[in-house]
Structures are given as C-alpha cells and as structure tokens.
Amino acid sequence: MTHHVVLIPGFFGFVNLGDLTYFTHVRTHITAWAQTRGLDVVVHRPKTPPTASIAVRARVLYDLIENEIPVDDGPIHLIGHSAGGLDARWLTSPVAVIEGADNLNAVASRIKTVVCVSTPHRGTPIATLFSSVMGGKLLRLLSIISTITLHGGDLPLSLVTSMIRAFKNDDQSALGDVDENMYSTLDASLTEGLKAFVKEIGVDQRLVEELSTGRSIERDFLLRDRDGIRYASVATVGQRPGLRTTLRQGVRPDHHASHALYTAAWSVAATTDLQPPNGSVDASGSNIESIDNDGIVPTASQLRGHVITTMHGDHLDVLGHYSGRDATPRHYDWLRSGSQCDLERFSKTWDRIWEFVFPRDE
Fold it and tell me: Which domains does the chain carry?
C-alpha cells in the first residue's frame, strides 16, 4: 500500500527559494523513517500562495490531491505547518466552502489523518502587527532575513536594527527603503525568486487578517472536524528570552542581532490573553502559560484536540531550521532563539508524528 503524505507550508512558505526547501529536513526524516519500517511513502508539497486566504490556499491543496494523487492509490495524510494546518482543516471541514472544488467530499473522504504543527488555531498577535500600515514592508524584510539566514549567510546589522525598531515601536519610518538595498546582499540566483515572492505578497494579504486573534471564533465555526479523519496537533514553546539566551549567542554580533529580533517578535506574540487548556504542560512537564510562544504563534493557540507532543523550539526549529551545520543536509538557524534545538529533539518530535500517522496496529 502506498501512503501519500502532503506537507503543507505555512505563512513562512517564502523559504522555498533557490536550492532551499521549506520541508527539506522533514522530507529527509520521513524517507529514512519509512524505509526502516518497510512503508511505501510518497511525499507531496503544494505550492500555496504565501499570504492568500485560507480558502484560496485550501483550493491549491484540493487541486494537488485531485490532479496528482490517483484515486484508490492509498490513504492521504495532511501535515500542515503554521497556517498550513488551517489549510488542511479547511479542506477537510464538512461545512467550509471551496469555490470550484466540485468533488470536495470525494477528495476529503480519501484523507485519513490531519496533523497541525505550530498552527495558530486561535490566531496570533503577530498577524495584527503584519496587518498594520507597515505590515507589507515588515513581511518583505522578514522574507529577506529568512532567505539570507537559511542559506547560511550573516545578517546585515542595519536590517535587523530596523526590524527591531519596527516591532517595538510600530515605527514605519524605521524601515525606510532598507528592503530594496538588501537585495544586493543576496546571491543573484535568489534575487529573482525573492522579488517574485515579494510581488506575490502585494497581490493578496488576506491570510494576515484571518490569522488575527479576533477572527478565530468565526474561523473555528467553519473549521469543524470531519468524521472518519484522525486529527492531532503539535505545539512548540520557544525559550523565553533573557540573560541566559543572550549569553548563548557567543561573541558574534550577527548572532546577537538575530536573537534581538527573536526577542522582539517573542514579545509581540506574548501580548495575548489566550489561555492554554487546563493542565497543559510542555515537553519538560512545566505548565504552559499564556505568554509562552515560539516567536510567532502563542503556544496556547497551537494546542487543539489530541496533542501528540510539545517541543522546545521556535517556529521553524520544528522544521529543522536550527543550528546544526555538521548534519547532512546542513541546518541553518532561522532566528537564534536560544532554545538549543538539535537533531535529537527534532527527530524525537517527528518520530512521534509518524507514529501517530502510521500506527503499528494498522
């Protein structure tokens, strides 16, 4: 039997640029994991528009399944990171509408599991910041930062300083035209793809509004679970920034700049009154509090239904984007959160995800 695993990128799908892939390390892990268990697994990844509405992104997901995975070719499993988890829930909801998806019930009936990883089920304060007057420019700059970092480059300190000022003070003037100047720091092969991504952001930013905490009640009315599908979630808890995480950055100025940006983003994500479900604990057994987040999404917003595990790490550590350049493929840290995520922690998390998706008794 062939199993089809669909890896759905989230709001930060812009890291699919050049030779870097959003799910590189996850794909490597599932390939090796399946081989050791004698499973036939085919991995798919839809190219979802980065900031389009959840309904539009769910339509892309529908088209992939309808057109690329033959009927009766085996069960389908959806793994969505960040907003990608909401795409999966929209596609499988018995009441949500996807325009033009004429065979929606037939497609949804082929899906066996939905796993939401670091998904903002109840929204995130970061979305409110991105939906402000300067939100579009913040998104552009963050995409450039991610591209530079995840290709192993050093962050220009002027760019990070501008971003931090904007996060802290809602200061549009702090950004200026710095994003235009940053293209010169990139490899020529990346510039064209990044500019295309920036243009795509300007066309449709409805996802930003939909991810706000104020829209979560309305969204959850539509995103109901479908009978016959097993749903689960995985949550991430970034290290609370402080003296300890600062000291972990060593002596390199660019590492401290990256950590300062994480601190600013973490502080924004912590400004929420969302409460975790009673008795929620992280991987170490500590109680999860309302301020806990992964630098992008409050942890309380990620906890929904059956929780497979919680992982100490930031929003992209869970995908393998942490410091670990000695591994193959090499790992580059998106933002230096000081969470000290490593290959062992990453592997244990995904081992548990695959054990849920492929239970041994089936």
Answer: 2-126+208-357 (3.40.50.1820)
